[in-house]
Structure of RNA 2',3'-cyclic phosphodiesterase:
Amino acid sequence: MPRLFTAIEVPDEIGLALAGYRGGLSGARWIDVENYHITLRFLGDIDEETAQEAAYLLGQVRRPPFEVTITGPDAFGGGRPRALVAKVSPSPAILELQAEHERLARRAGLPAESRKFAPHVTLARLRDASPRAVADYLGLRGGPPGLSFRAEQFVLYSSRDSVGGGPYVVEAAYPLR
Ligand code: 3AM
């Protein structure tokens, strides 16, 4: 079964700048730059029919392009950090697009996503990274990087069947207009 999710792609020049965050934290498994993305809605391992329905519904979305601003590095997981991310400003435009994907996913018959949406680019998965080391890392690199770009489309990505992770393949692209 395909494992699918919707996302905003990260342009090459932004990915290159974000790659500057790589390194300097033990226990980090750094994501390949070509796999950087901003997940909007994880659809999961779904059957072909549901995937077709979701792809069709996504094609009905009518929204204008919008500005995406990277606000800086952060960690998810609190006392047990599990991911290092570049946070993305939760602008009304990205929140509304994500909310629409959530509604469409439910119309396609998928269960509701219970986690609150916090837009981000995952930079590394963390295993055995101490909260102290993560705090030190962030202390050295914190602050807004002054990175933004215009999202002109969103995409439906597939990841490795049942396993997840990159390489991610763009199965369909949907222009914002
Ligand atoms: O954008 P990132 O890399 O943070 O964490 C997974 C990844 O997000 C997330 O979907 C993206 C593409 O794999 N993901 C994986 N399993 C998930 C789940 N069960 C999930 N999101 C929500 N629920």
Q: What stands out?
A: The longest strand covers residues 66-76.
